[in-house]
Amino acid sequence: MVFSRSEARLVGLTAVVTAAAAVTYYAHVGGTIAPFVLSGAALALLASLVGKSVEAIGDRLGAGATGVVQSALGNLPELFVVLFALKAKLYDVATATIVGSILANVLLVLGLAFIAGGAKHGVQRFEAASARRISLMLVLSVAALVVPALTSLLHTPAAGHERALSIAVSVLLLALFAASLPASLKKQESERGSAGPSPAVGGEHDVTPGWPMWLAITMLIATGVAAALVSDWFVAGLTPAMDALHISQTFAGLVIVAIAGNAVENVVGIQLAARNQPDHALSVILQSPVQITMMVAPALVLLSPLVGASFTLVLPPLLLVSLLLAVVVTVVVVLDGDSNWLEGAALVTLYAIIAASFWWG
């Protein structure tokens, strides 16, 4: 059998939930909440299948290529959601989703991973050098993301040219990401040779060996197209749901949309910590925000004109401060090379405080 039993169940569940979401969207049934909930669930399941397809392709091409393909395509569902939000002129949702995706990973998911691992195994230790390396990339990429906002808030001569500056920053970030690929490939290839059979880069999914390349590519195309359609349904159901639940655009993007786009993949990082694999868990969880800052946000700046929008990297003050606080706290927590459940609880609490501060907008 090509699919494992768990993969077959995931494919079947995704098909059922996506079909149900399509019915609520095209037949206009289910009121205001059901279409939003079903499309959000379908989006999360499709994100998982996109990830599995990406890693299956990378597994055929080699361990190093997995990271390249995963970085390039793994965030497709989130990219589609934000593009459709921009098309719908939900700029607050779009901006908050980018920041919320970063916050959810560095505070909520990392905190839950520390709690799960610490409660089961006590103090968990991970490679300090690897933690420093990924923390450095996170700080540098977020710093680049913050500069356009500071030029506006501080009324520098660049104020008024935020769009041009955002384009320049985006191009430079994408160039930096491209420049980092050879080093990443070299590192991953050497690790593959010394460690023997290992999970795909990032360890985010258990991929059944033996997926034919044609199936992996077909699944990627099918799930990518489906993710684009469901993203449109999800954003279409977002405004009625926000009105019905009295949720602000910023809170919806920061918490609901950000978590929905990464829900299934985030669970894997927590599972790795619970299995006493803290190094893999840390890599999975912190690589995602690095990819968001170096790839997704720049891509949105460059692609937004295609949907009739003009997206910039200028963040509102509270989002900006929250992002900086979260990254600083996360770096301080991971640099000592160990974790425990109390540190995890503190991270989750900080996430809840930040999320609550945006409830009213």
What secondary-structure arrangement, pairings included, does this model have?
Blueprint: H1 5-26, H2 34-61, H3 63-73, H4 76-87, H5 91-121, E1 124-125, H6 128-153, H7 162-195, H8 213-245, H9 249-274, H10 278-303, H11 317-334, E2 338-339, H12 341-357
Antiparallel strand pairs: 1-2
Helix pairs in contact: 1-2, 1-8, 2-3, 2-8, 2-9, 3-7, 4-5, 4-8, 4-10, 5-9, 5-10, 5-11, 5-12, 6-7, 6-10, 6-11, 7-10, 9-10, 11-12
Can you walk through the features of this model?
- With about 350 residues, the protein is mainly α.
- The chain has one domain (about 5-355).
- Helix content is about 80%, strand content about 0%.
- The chain has helices at about 5-25, 35-60, 65-75, 75-85, 90-120, 130-155, 160-195, 215-245, 250-275, 280-305, 315-335, 340-355, and strands spanning about 125, 340.
- It has a two-stranded antiparallel sheet.
- α2 crosses α9.
- The longest helix is centred in the middle third of the chain and has 34 residues, at about 160-195.
- The chain is globular.
- The N and C termini lie far apart (about 50 Å).
- The model is unreliable at about 185-210 (pLDDT under 50).
